[in-house]
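Sorry to interrupt, but I need a hand with the structure work. Leave the record below and I will have a look:
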Amino acid sequence: MNNVNYQKELDKITAVIEEGRINRPKVLLHACCAPCSSYCMEYLREFFDITVFYFNPNITSEAEYTKRLDEEIRLIGIYNDQVTRYREAGLQPDACDMKVTDNTGLIKIIRGDYIPGQFSERVKGYEDCPERGARCHICYELRIAETFKIAREAGIEYVATTLTLSPLKDAQKINEIGYRLGEGSGDVKWLPSDFKKREGYKRSIELSAEFGLYRQNYCGCVYSKRE
C-alpha cells in the first residue's frame, strides 16, 4: 500500500457524505495532543460526529500526560462553545472562527486508561530505534488497536487518528496498520488520512496560536524526548 495518497482516499468518503448518499457517520478520533487535534477536528466535523479518544501510554511522565489531556479538554470546550453560540445566537459560520453549520455536532471525549507500562513492555528491544522506525510502528499499533476496541464497544462506525498530521510521523505506515486492524473489526472501518496535506500542519500551528495551546516539542516517550 506504499505511495497511496490517503488524503484523496479520505476525499472519496467525505464526498459521499457531502452528497447525502450516506447519513452523517460517527468517528472515534484517537488524539495525541490538542495542537494535532485542532486541525483534524476542524476538518472532520464538517462531515462526521466526532468522539475524541485520548489514549497515549507512550507518554512516560504523568504530569505531561495530564497537561496534554487538560489541553485537549479545553480545546474541545472551545469548539463546542462555537457551536453553541452559532445555534443559540444565530451567528453566521464566519463569526464562529471556523466552519460551523446546522449539522455540526458537539464533540465528545473518552479518556483512555493511563498505563505507561503498556508501552514500555511493547517496545523492549527497540529502545535505540530512530524516530519513525520500528519502535514508533509498535506505538502506532498499540494506540490504534485500543481505539478500534473502544469504537466497537461504543458502536462507532469509523476510527481515525491525529497522528498523520505530524511531519515526524509515517503516515503510510499508520494507514497500513489502520487498514489491517480494521479488517478484523466487524462494522468498524478505518478512516484513511494524511492530515498534513493541504497545509493541515500549518493550519494546526495557526489554531494553536489562536487558542494559546500548549505545544510540546517531543512526541511523548522518553526516547523521543532524548532525541
In short: The first helix runs from residue 6 to 18.
